[in-house]
Design brief:
Strand order of the largest sheet of chain B: 2-1-3-4-5-6
Radius of gyration of chain A: 19 Å
Mean pLDDT of chain B: 95
Bound molecules: iron/sulfur cluster
Helix content of chain B: 25-40%
Shape of chain B: globular
Oligomer: heterodimer
Mean pLDDT of chain A: 93
Largest interface: A-B, 30 and 30 residues
Strand content of chain B: 5-15%
Order of helices and strands of chain A: EHEEHEHEHEEHEEHEE
Distance between the termini of chain A: 19 Å
Structural class of chain B: alpha/beta
Shape of chain A: elongated
Distance between the termini of chain B: 59 Å
Largest sheet of chain B: 6 strands, mixed
Number of helices of chain A: 6
């Protein structure tokens, strides 16, 4: 951070219709919101200067997020309340900030620091009762790994590492909700709906994934899973 | 009417399509007026990312939404994957803002951006469920109104529209909506609605006109039925300062083309290039003042949050205060990471100077110049008042200032073109490359690129070349071969526009009403997104021409006589036929005509005919 810069952290959601945005679309939309908010933001040096901003791990198209984060560097210190109000006024409702705060410059980047996320996967269909889905998931976990085909590449996830906590299945309207904690690793992060889908199909259940929401993203330090970035 | 909110049904499809953000609405700046008693939907006949940046729709959307109790909404043509799912699931075309069926709106405005969009007009109509032909619609259907650049020969699409607006829409759209609303509320018949619309200046109601043909079936003219005017003259806004450009505008989520804030800094171009339809039909020149432009750019950027502002027009660097505008914007935007771009440049020292101002001495993306022809003789024929010295001098200056890439636009098949002119393109490119090389330090020479883009000349209506024959496909290929052989390979990227698409464009540009059947037949044969080269299939069109008994080359490749009736004679862009003919004669005599905004009137008659005049903010630099 150049001297005279302030690292502002913004917590926001990607919900409602805007869960259909891609990560790049979210990035661009929030950069634009920051400029609309009239904040004095820092600009990167170099060939094509642009706003200095950094995001946490990407959310796929169609996946909602309730506690996502980005950092933006400001050149003028502005009080938290003022910044928050300006950002709310300048951001589309479904991407609106829910909290802001300044963080020390030496703190690790969001992209590197956030390694754990909690997801809710909604399941619906004839066989979507809690018990059936629960045992289907248990069957998958027992296998120990999940192989995912992505375009022409295969990725293998070690489920003991990727799933640091036990999955919970709860009753929900029209089916159930699978709550799971996923650890992201250098090999990429396991897409929870792929895991659930694999479970449903291996158990031949007549049920499907309706929607996926990342409800929390956490910093993970020394075995401590649940540290919020803000 | 059901006025069903289709969102739950639309959302159910989104997980299975490319770029779902095309269909979700909720963009910053989108206007929602759910209680409005009158709903107009503007459709751009292409995908969201192509249509969203369209300035004309942005203007109309802004103007109409400012009217109490009227809602203006947007719709685009869904991409193939989404269209297939919508058909499969019985989801009709919906407007973004309300997500209600387009067929339940009051007015459906469809813009006609270019000839290859015509099948997409039908694709959009088909998805709405509205009958293709005006003749098959009744009062339960929205009024289908066309507008945009292609209206200067509306005949190929005339049967699909209830009304077509010729010219600028800022004021006309308000009049059309007012007349339609009042007529609807009064419960008058559809015929009466159309008759009332035809009374609005600039509004063409195709069903009130009929074609006459002689015994052999040859076209003889288009005549009004009843009291409709014999000629429809384009609408034009006298002074751009009187109509503020939309400041807020819709800021897209999707990565669209031209993804930036645009301000139209001037309208019209009077350089008088004889091939250029835009130059003829958007006359006269009207500039916005430097104060207005700077103010609009600054407030537009603040409202939108874009990191780039574009100063648009046909010839932005012709603006008499462009230097002042760029200097002021440069000062205001310094250190913000926000840049300014100019879409078109002059092939002269001034153009390069302006490019330098825009890049602020920093990032140098490619420069684009359009010499259009390879020899001075042919440039004089087309009245492109640019010399080889202008071009080479500009290239030298640009490369000495640090640019490494230049893009050159040319056409083949211009009237009077010989093989020597085609070879001249190769020679000019060779000299350009040599000049660029000499002006570049030896260590950087490896990165020099000259991109050469060559299209086939398509004669357009309302231009001095509207009577000319377009060269046939095999002749295009022969000349392309000559060109390729005359062009150096190293450091040159040669790119052609698809010759088959240009041929079809030529047929659509000058065809008559009989083309409507062909368009419908081609759409039924699977043609859509024809402007997307990978979707275009000439065979579909060949089948359609055959099936409708229309000979396309008799339209595209035939020289017309000066006294024969033309299918667009009833449409006037204000430029007189006398002027077009005299410009044609001057072209054939290789005589150039100056720009009236620099000197005196050249007699195109636009100002007199339309009661408008050239509006400049200062003196122009020729
Ligand atoms: S300079 Fe020539 S080509 Fe460009 S808009 Fe004007 S008339 Fe058309």
């Amino acid at each position: 951070m150049a001297s005279g810069e302030y690292r502002l952290r913004v917590r926001y959601g990607k919900v409602g219709r805007l869960r259909w945005l891609s990560h790049l679309e979210v990035v661009r939309a929030l950069e634009r919101a920051t400029r609309r908010a009239g904040l004095k933001y820092a600009v990167t040096q170099g060939f094509s200067p642009h706003i200095k901003i950094a995001f946490g791990p990407a959310l796929p198209v169609g996946t909602a997020g309730e506690n996502e984060y980005y950092d933006v560097w400001l050149t003028r210190y502005t009080g938290i309340d003022e910044v928050f109000k300006r950002l709310v006024d300048a951001t589309a409702e479904d991407l609106a900030p829910t909290a802001v705060g300044y963080v020390p410059e030496r703190e690790v980047s969001l992209a590197a620091g956030i390694t754990v996320a909690v997801y809710h996967v909604e399941v619906e269909g004839r066989d979507s009762e809690v018990g059936k889905v629960q045992s289907a998931l248990a069957g998958i976990v027992e296998l120990g790994t999940l192989t995912v085909q992505h375009r022409d590449k295969q990725k293998v996830f070690d489920l003991t590492r990727s799933l640091p906590e036990e999955m919970r299945v709860k009753e929900a309207e029209g089916g159930c909700t699978v709550e799971l904690t996923v650890r992201m690793g250098p090999e990429g992060s396991l897409r929870p709906e792929l895991l659930v889908r694999a479970a449903l199909s291996s158990a031949s259940l007549d049920a499907s994934v309706r929607s996926t929401t990342r409800v929390e993203t956490y910093f993970e330090s020394e075995g401590e899973l649940h540290t919020r970035p803000l | 009417m059901t006025q069903e909110d289709l969102w739950p049904r639309v959302e159910a499809l989104l997980g299975r399509v490319e770029r779902p953000a095309r269909y979700i609405d909720r963009e910053w700046g989108a206007v929602h007026k759910p209680e409005a008693g009158y709903r107009a939907v503007f459709v751009y006949p292409d995908t969201y990312e192509v249509g969203q940046p369209n300035q004309a729709i942005a203007i109309l959307y802004d103007r109409l939404n400012a009217v109490a109790d009227v809602a203006a909404e947007r719709a685009y043509v869904p991409w193939l994957d989404m269209a297939a799912l919508m058909r499969e699931n019985g989801v009709p075309l919906f407007s973004l803002e309300s997500c209600k069926p387009v067929c339940e709106s009051d007015l459906l405005g469809i813009t006609l951006p270019h000839e290859l969009s015509y099948t997409n007009v039908l694709e959009a109509l088909d998805l709405t469920g509205i009958p293709f032909r005006s003749a098959d619609r009744d009062v339960s259907h929205p009024l289908v109104v066309g507008g945009g650049p292609c209206v200067y020969n509306p005949e190929p699409v005339a049967p699909f529209f209830d009304a077509i607006l010729i010219g600028e829409g800022e004021d006309a759209i308000l009049e059309i909506v007012a007349v339609h609303r009042e007529a609807k509320n009064a419960g008058v018949s559809r015929t009466e609605i159309l008759t009332r619309l035809a009374e609005i200046p600039g509004v063409y109601v195709p069903s009130l006109y009929t074609e006459t043909r002689d015994g052999s079936g040859a076209f003889k003219g288009i005549e009004p039925l009843g009291n409709a005017p014999a000629q429809i003259t384009k609408r034009v806004v006298g002074d751009l300062e009187s109509v503020a450009p939309p400041v807020r505008g819709v800021v897209p989520f999707v990565d669209v083309i031209h993804d930036r804030f645009s301000v139209e800094i001037l309208r019209g171009c009077t350089r008088g290039c004889r091939f250029c339809q835009a130059g003829m039909v958007y006359r006269p020149v009207r500039e916005r003042s430097a104060d207005t432009v700077v103010r609009e750019v600054m407030s537009g950027l603040a409202c939108s949050g874009y990191d780039e502002a574009s100063l648009t027009s046909l010839s932005t660097t012709d603006h008499s205060q462009i230097e002042e505008i760029l200097r002021r914007l440069h000062r205001r935007l310094e250190g913000t990471g926000v840049s300014v771009s100019l879409p078109s440049l002059r092939v002269d020292a001034f153009g390069v100077e302006m490019a330098h101002l825009v890049s602020g001495g920093g990032k140098k993306s490619g420069l684009t110049f359009a010499p259009e022809a390879g020899t001075q003789r042919l440039r004089d024929v087309i009245n492109k008042n640019v010399t080889e010295e202008d071009l080479l001098g500009s290239v030298e200056r640009a490369f000495a200032a640090g640019w490494r890439r230049v893009k050159l636009y040319f056409m083949i098949g211009l009237p009077t073109e010989t093989d020597a002119d085609v070879q001249g393109i190769g020679e000019l490119v060779t000299r350009t490359f040599a000049v660029a090389r000499a002006a570049t330090p030896p260590s950087a020479r490896g990165s020099i690129r000259v991109a050469v883009s060559v299209s086939t000349f398509v004669p357009k209506t309302q231009t001095p070349f509207q009577w000319e024959a377009q060269i046939p496909l095999d002749e295009v290929r022969r000349r392309q071969a000559i060109l390729r052989d005359s062009m150096p390979r190293k450091g040159i990227d040669l790119h052609w526009h698809d010759a088959q698409e240009s041929f079809l464009e030529g047929v659509m540009a000058r065809g008559g009403r009989e083309i409507a059947d062909v368009i419908e037949s081609a759409w039924r044969g699977g043609a859509k997104f024809d402007a997307w080269t990978e979707q275009f299939r000439l065979q579909r069109w060949a089948d359609a021409f055959e099936c409708c008994g229309v000979d396309p080359s008799a339209i595209a490749n035939r020289q017309r006589t000066e006294d024969e009736p033309l299918p667009w004679d009833h449409i006037s862009a204000g430029v007189s036929r006398k002027y077009l003919l005299s410009e044609r004669a001057r072209a054939l005599g290789t005589v150039t005509t100056p720009d009236c905004s620099f000197g005196s009137c050249t007699g195109c008659d636009v100002c007199g005919d339309l009661g408008v005049e050239v509006v400049l903010g200062g003196e122009r630099r020729g």
